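== Folding the chain ==

***
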Amino acid sequence: MQNLLSLKDVSKILNLKESTIYAWVHRKKISYVKIGGKLAFIEAHIQDFIEKNTYN
């Protein structure tokens, strides 16, 4: 089973406000799942998101 992260977890990992993550969800900029009406994020997808948005 894959590890799930909360909105708060992702906010801390990306060092962004929860409102920014929430806006990205609505713009489909970041993948998510809904469980019981709450947002959750698959840890591996967040890691991929970081890698794809890292520039040297």
